[in-house]
Amino acid sequence: MLAIRFLRSVSPPLKCVRRSYKTNVSAQNTLEIRNNVYQTDEWTNITPKILSYIGLNKHLQKNHPLSIIRQRIVNYFYRSYTNSRGNPLFSVHDKICPVVTVQQNFDNLLVPADHPSRAKSDCYYINKHYLLRAHTTAHQIELIKSGLDNFLAVGDVYRRDEIDSTHYPVFHQLDAVRLISQDKLFGNNLDLHIFESSYKVNPSSFSPINSSSKCIDQSKQPCHTLEAVKLTEHELKTILLGLAKDLFGNNIEHRWIDTYFPFTQPSWELEIYYKGNWMEVLGCGIMRHEILESCGVTNSIGYAFGLGLERLAMVLFDIPDIRLFWSNDTGFLHQFNESNLYKLNKYKPVSVYPQCKNDLSFWLPENQDIDSFSANDFYDIVRNVGGDIVEQISLVDKFKHPKTGKSSLCFRIVYRHMERTLTQAEVNEIHSKIAQSCVEQLEVTIR
C-alpha cells in the first residue's frame, strides 16, 4: 500500500506527460491476460515484455529471497495477533490477479482525478478502464467488502520507471489492513468512543473523484475522536516497530516521519538508521473513514501499512542489482534457503561480467520539444527489445539546434548480462534494434 512511493520522491530525468506511443500490442485490437480478453484503445501502453512477467509470482517461489522476506513478515503477524484459541487473526492473500480497474487502483482510494500517478507515463494501461495494479492497495476495498477485518495482501505491482540497479518495472508489495471496533479499542470503558458525537454516518456521500484528499490536519480526521486515533496510532507504531526489529535487529535506531497519502490520515513513514544512512522501511496511517463507509463499515477505525519486498531483500541479503530477483541462474538461486528464515545468507557474486556502453542520439519530431518527451516511453522500448541485459540508462546530453529549432537527446545505455560476458557484436545488434524501434514508435530520427 503506502510504501509504494505513491508520491514519488525521485523525479525521472525528463518530464512525464500523457503521451501515447505506437506499440504492436495496441495494433492487435485485443489482449488476452489470464484467459480474459480486453479491447485495446488509445490508452493501451502495455508491452509484450511486461506481459511476460504476469504469473511468475517470485514472491511465492521456494527459496527465493522475496519469498523468504514475505514469510518472515507473515509469521511475525501470525505471532503478534491471535484469537482466544491461539489461531492467527490475519489472513493472507497472495495470488490475486494483477489486472484491476481504474476505480480499484485510484477512485476507491480517493486519488484525485488530476493526480500524476494516474498518467500513462506512470502506469501500464490495458485500456482506459483496466491497468496492471500499481500497488496492492488496489484490492483493499474488495477484501474489506468480503468481510475481512485483518488481512495481508501480497503481489507483483507494475510501474513505468527509469532503468538502474534499484528500479524495475515489476516489483512486489505487501499491504496490510486492520479494523478495530469500539469494544476492541476501549473495552468496557463506555466513556470513550471512536467517533465524535457530531459525526453522522453517510456512506452515500462517498465521491472519490471529488473528495478532498489533501491532509490538512495531521492529528486526526474530523470524524474520529482524538482518543481513538491515539490508541490506534500507538498500536500501529508498536506493531510496525516490532516488525522492523524482527527484520533488522532489536538495537535499531528509528524515527517516524509525517507524510501524506490520499487514502490515510494521519500518515507516517518509518525510517531506520542502517549502515550509516536513514532508510525508509514502510508507510502507514489511519485509514480514511470515507473508504470504510463505502465498504459498509461504520463502527470501526482502521489502520493500514505497506512495504516493498525488493527494498527490504536488497538490504537484508546484500543484493546489489534488482534484476537479480528475476534471474534463473542456479548460482544465484542456490545461495538462499528458507529452511531457516532467520539465517539470511548474504549474496555472493558468482562472477562479475564486464559492461558494454553504447550511446543513442536522436532528433525529436519537429512538433515535439524536450519537455514534452516522455522518458518512460523510451525506457519501455529499451526493456522490450533489450530485456534484462540492460543495466542502466542515463541521459547524457540534450540539445536544441539554434537554427532549425529541432531538439536532440542522447542516452547512454549500459549493457551487462547477469550470467555471462556479452560480446560487443551482439550488443551492437541489440542496440541497432532499439534504435529502429525508436524510429518506428517514437517517430524520431537517429543522429
TrEMBL record:
EC number from the UniProt entry: 6.1.1.20
Residue ranges occupied by any FDX-ACB domain in the UniProt entry: 351-447
Subcellular compartments: Mitochondrion matrix
Broadest EC class assigned to this enzyme: ligase
GO CC terms, sorted: mitochondrial matrix
Pfam families according to UniProt: FDX-ACB (PF03147), tRNA-synt_2d (PF01409)
InterPro entries hit by this protein: aa-tRNA-synth_II (IPR006195), aa-tRNA-synth_II/BPL/LPL (IPR045864), Fdx_antiC-bd (IPR005121), Fdx_antiC-bd_sf (IPR036690), Phe-tRNA-synth_IIc_mito (IPR004530), Phenylalanyl-tRNA_Synthase (IPR002319)
A biological process from GO: phenylalanyl-tRNA aminoacylation
Chain ranges of the Aminoacyl-transfer RNA synthetases class-II family profile domain: 69-349
Any one GO molecular-function label of the UniProt entry: tRNA binding
Catalytic reaction list: tRNA(Phe) + L-phenylalanine + ATP = L-phenylalanyl-tRNA(Phe) + AMP + diphosphate + H(+)
Chain segments annotated as coiled-coil in the UniProt record: none
Key words, A-Z: Acetylation, Aminoacyl-tRNA synthetase, ATP-binding, Ligase, Mitochondrion, Nucleotide-binding, Protein biosynthesis, Transit peptide
Family: Belongs to the class-II aminoacyl-tRNA synthetase family.
UniProt function note: Is responsible for the charging of tRNA(Phe) with phenylalanine in mitochondrial translation. To a lesser extent, also catalyzes direct attachment of m-Tyr (an oxidized version of Phe) to tRNA(Phe), thereby opening the way for delivery of the misacylated tRNA to the ribosome and incorporation of ROS-damaged amino acid into proteins.
Subunit and interaction comment: Monomer.
The protein's name: Phenylalanine--tRNA ligase, mitochondrial
